[in-house]
Amino acid sequence: MAGGIVHFEIPAQDTARAKNFWGTLLGYEFQSMEGPTEYHMFQTGENQGGGIYPQQEGETGLITYFLIDDIDAARQQVEELGGSAQEKEPVPGMGWYARATDTEGNAFSLWQGDENAPAPEQSA
Q1: What distance in Å separates the CA atoms of residue 35 and residue 18, rounded to the nearest whole number?
Q2: What is the pTM of this model?
């Protein structure tokens, strides 16, 4: 279903502390993901989940991912409606995401599932 919430992220100053908080409060069990960035995923439903990762400068609040059918068209529509959208990035074997901001300055992300999403290109 396009428009549904499929994922949310929790930026954390201390990922161990955040995992303890959310794991204890809501019973989340975490799976640490391999990759260049520390990332701990959890499931909230059959096709829904979230992640905790080290907070980047200036990040606050949860980042919600909305399911869309066509990430390129959605990014363009965000811009046409007065928001902003970054370039899409792959999550290998899972799909594509693009960070965006609405007209009120609220951060969110777009998500399009795609098992054929490639690994990001590495710079030499």
Answers
A1: 20
A2: 0.81
